[in-house]
Design goal:
This is Iron ABC transporter permease. This protein is an all-alpha fold and 347 residues long. It has one domain: Orthogonal Bundle (ABC transporter involved in vitamin B12 uptake, BtuC). 77% of the residues lie in helices and 0% in strands. α1 packs antiparallel against α3, α4 packs parallel to α6 and α9 runs antiparallel to α11. The protein starts with a helix and ends in a 7-residue tail after the last helix.
Length: 347
Amino acid sequence: MASLSQSNTQRQPRTSAATKTAVLTVVLVAALAASCLLSVAFGSRVVTFGQIVNAFAHPEVTDIASDAIRLRVPRTVLAILVGAALAVSGALMQGVMRNPLADPTILGLNSGAAFAIVCSIAFVGLSTPAQYMIVALAGGALTAMAVWAVGSIGRSGPSPLKFTLAGAVIGSVLSSLTSAITLPRTDVISTYRFWQVGGVSGGRFELMAPVLPLMAVGFAVAALSARQLNALALGDQMAAGLGVDVNRARMMAWSGAVLLSATSTALAGPIGFVGLVVPHAARLIVGADYRRILAMSALIGPLLLVASDVIGRVVSRPDDVEVGIVTALIGAPVFIALVRRRSMPEV
């Protein structure tokens, strides 16, 4: 009887936690749906729900409201994709590094993409969004390879500490080189500054299409890495004792993070705080299991980015405040609040 009572006592907290997670998931899904509707409705011109339905039901209509709606739909889709990619990428990086402050910005990937963009503008003369997208993707990927190579130097092989230091150093060097190129060139600064802020206002389906397969591969790799990240969280020795090839698992998760980070940066520019804050929020909701953290991050990230984009359009109508500025304003105090919580779980 005592053992049965103890079993029931253990089962009740688990059931309660699962119920709480399910309720929060439903709430977040509803909030994301509402944010998407507001994203389509609000802008320099506000449209009604009936006009939104009419625009989708009658695609041949070309009035002002319908045209505005059709421009906002790819923007909203881009915010969803980039938000999910950045959030999952940040969760992967924090798992690989076992560092709660790891994200694409801190590890230098955004600096690599920015340096590639500046070089392409200053020395090659590239000027179209499609060209910037390809260059940023290549710059972020090459920087990630450099961080991995430097972080793997030494007899001990790759380690979270060396990765973090390598990312910080390489990111600082590339940022300095970017400044050295842009400061004497006002023409380069005037072009680069619009990309540097980070935003989804230029979202178009034809620009997204070439990058979507790489992003899909990144999400697939992230899903396959979740169980191994749980083992890596126990430490390299414990993970190896459980039969996990530590270097292979770390490289796999790192590859997924790089694909997601590079593709999102290529599409929307360097948007900060999403990859840093969202995994912590997911961890507070679902605990330390990376299978749940990655899934919840893929839900919270789009919500944050779509909502930030709506806020940026509402506060400065008829102009827009780019989403990268809004996420920084929202993300900084939220992250401080998360850090101050004593119950915040470790990575």
